[in-house]
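Batch queue: ligand-bound targets. Current item pairs a single chain with pyridoxal-5'-phosphate. No template structures supplied; prediction is de novo from sequence plus SMILES. Inputs echoed for audit trail.
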Amino acid sequence: MPGVLETGKKDLLRALPAVDAVLREPAAKPLAARHGRAALTAAVRAVLDDARRRILDGDESPGASVLEAASLLLSGRGLKRVVNATGVILHTNLGRSVLSERAAEAVAQAATRYSNLEYDLASGGRGSRYDHAVPLLRGLTGAEDALVVNNCAGATLLALSAIVSDADGSLPEDAKPEVIVSRGQLIEIGGGFRIPEVLELSGARLREVGATNRTRLADYAKAIGENTRAILWVHPSNFEIQGFTESASVADLSTLGLPVIADVGSGALPTFGDEPRVSDAVRDGASLVLFSGDKLLGGPQAGIAVGARTWISAMRRHPLARALRADKLCLAALEATLGAYLEGTAYEDLPTPTMFHAPVEGLRERADLLAGDLARVASGFEVDVSPSVARSGGGTLPVHEIPSLAVRLGGGDVEALADRLRAAEVPVVGRVNDGLLWLDVRTLLSDDEVAIVAAVKEAVEGESG
Ligand SMILES: *Cc1c(COP(=O)(O)O)cnc(C)c1O
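Prediction returned. Tokens below.
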């Protein structure tokens, strides 16, 4: 029998095409144009080597077309560095916040070494992953306790689920625990995350009060019944209603004798525009304050809950906590990020808060230098520096305009240029407006200029060649 198998293997091996034959296929041409001939050849070799190994290992159907597999291999390096020249600081599509060097080092350390993630070094016994970052969060917010989960959407779901579980048994059969929310706060955060749907998912019944533009404390008070278990206050972070408006504050709601869950979204630690401060919500009596790790905070993707010990431990005990838990890389980055706030170096060490605060005069030299470099390589285009408006993004401070500067390219086909910049080795994302390509310098990180100049050079040369 082994002999038969061997013959089968030989046939399969013989049926594999030669590298040159694959490269001569018509479909190889566009791939070589996009990725370069050398990269395509290397990918084809790798695919054929892999097919050979698999045949020898007994695999009788070693994959689809070699070229298809090579193409997947080339385009499969999916997540890559991008230059954000949009001027949108918390650009959710471009990865939101950027970690500090210190946070990145902490991540590398946690990733490549063992750690005391769930190990108590003092006793030599089991510890809890939920203990990490807690002392820092208590110190920064004044809360009794804290819990870190995957993201703020997860923290909201878990907080509501914990409130509902806690109510079980205390309600008559068939009764659902109710959570009161203002109609002005039944928002969609983005990516299909809608407050009414999250409430339903948690098992709570939504009790809407007030009107879209006005909800008073009395509206909440009137709605409280025997099944009411909490009040949810949501910061409408990605839009603003102007004019005839009224809403009840966390401090007001805390007088009603029910737990108040405050989803503040962005979570300003130090004062930041009109964003609700986490420590204020804690001081004002919220039982739970929920916020994101990768918005204004400038840390990793995370959902942070701070508040009363009883409610934080109810969240920790809930089975969903395991499903939503933060991983060690997140915890390492978060501790390093929070450390910068505690030490008062957030506006030097953390790239994202620093971008928000950089004075516009400080951007001038950078913009002029970049414009000078681009004027040299962008033949066929006119280059200038113009005042521009940067934005917060990430569903934060929606109408807040941040003065900035942009290098603008015009006088040619800027749409085509923008397309080519996005296809560069290090893709550059700007914005096309008024027939000009705007590259905002507020969101540039160190050395991004080098990548921009290379991308523009490549784009312009590709055009003429
Ligand atoms: C952004 C936001 C969320 C969701 O936060 P993620 O960390 O992205 O899950 C929830 N609530 C509010 C008010 C927000 O602004």
